[in-house]
Amino acid sequence: MAGRHRRLAALTLAALALTGCASSAPRETVTPSPAPTTVAPTAEAVPTWPLTGVPGEDAEERPAVAVKVENTAMARPQTGLEEADVVWEEMVEGGITRFNAVFHSRLPEVVGPIRSVRPMDAGIVAPLGGPQVISGGQPLFLGSVQEAGVQLISHDAGHAGFFRSADRRAPHNLYGRLPELLTQAEAAEPPPEQFSFAADGEEATAVLEGEPATALRLSFPQTSPGWTWDGGADRWLRDEAGEPATSVAGDVLGAENVVVMRVEVVASEGRDQSGDAVPETVMTGTGEALVASGGRVVPATWSKAALGEPVTLTTAAGDDVALAPGTTWVELVPVDRGGVDVQR
């Protein structure tokens, strides 16, 4: 019996020893893995061309280039206007108009007929940061535009890219090869946005807040261009005194937006061939405006604090006017020698 008790005691001590060893060993703690979280993808902003608001994933890093284009019966049909992002129409001597066509998202091979600079071109081109292409100009005007920081690419100065067409008589036959002209630009950056754009045409300010319109009739002292809404093309189509304004290919010129700015026109210090003062549009200050998009028009106010700043368009409530994505024609209509009639 004594031996049996000794064996039980030994087994009990061994069991206690094993229990003690087990209790002193570190225990492994298993932490459950957190459930995977789903992160919603962030929508990337689609890049747009700054002068049209049109999406352009392949938008090239190039400057805008403005070209001074004639607008007389001898110059029509002009070449390249249909591919301009923005076209400005300004009154010059004799009460006729000329265009300052700005190209960026599209570059036609040829543009023209090209004519001379005017003092108000500084306020149009300086905010873009790119060059102005001209045939030449009076030294007074050349100097004032250059003082505003605008690079001039001029036929009279011997720059490359110009040629005379045998199809027309001088001075209505000077044209430019736009890609070659652009290679001479000192600027390399694309232009900043000049106007505000809606995400799509249905959200343009004129569409949301304006009144329906079928046509706009404009008047300058010696010309009366017009714009008629084409719902099928979803564009405003241009005419010259009732005759369709066309490209060389025969297509009617059009735009998604027409901006009419009522402006002061004063006598500059320059003189034309008859000795009369060359008119100068005052490009700074503020005034009445009319914005047409999507077959509707809305009144607005334009303002421009300095030559180098873009024009700002605001509603009566003080909000920025959003244009429809696309091309824009800006009509600089004199307050005292011109007018605009909206046809419903």
What is the CATH first-level class name?
A: Alpha Beta
**CATH homologous superfamily annotation:** YerB-like
Distance between the termini: 125 Å
How many strands, which pairing sense, and closed or not: the largest β-sheet? 11 strands, mixed
Alpha plus pi helix count = 5
Radius of gyration, whole Å: 34 Å
Principal-axis shape equals globular
- The structural domain count equals 1
Average pLDDT, all residues: 89
Key structural traits:
344 residues; alpha+beta; YerB-like fold; 11-stranded mixed β-sheet; 6-stranded antiparallel β-sheet; disordered N terminus
Structure, described:
With 344 residues, the protein is α+β, with helices and mostly antiparallel strands. It has a single domain (65-343), classed as 3-Layer(bba) Sandwich (YerB-like fold), CATH 3.50.90.10. Helix content is 14%, strand content 33%. The protein is built from five helices and 24 strands. The chain has helices at residues 2-24, 121-125, 139-147, 178-182, 205-209; strands at 65-71, 86-91, 97-103, 110-111, 132-134, 152-154, 162-164, 174-177, 196-197, 211-212, 215-219, 225-230, 235-240, 243-244, 254-255, 257-263, 265-271, 277-281, 285-293, 296-304, 312-314, 322-323, 328-334, 339-343. Strands 1, 2, 3, 5, 6, 10, 16, 19, 20, 21 and 23 form an eleven-stranded mixed β-sheet that branches. Strands 11, 12, 13, 14, 15 and 24 form a six-stranded antiparallel β-sheet that branches. A three-stranded antiparallel β-sheet has the order 4-8-7. The longest helix is centred in the first third of the chain and has 23 residues, at 2-24. The protein is globular and about 50 Å long. Keywords: Signal. Residues 29-48 have a biased composition (Low complexity). InterPro entries: DUF3048_C, DUF3048_N, YerB-like_sf.
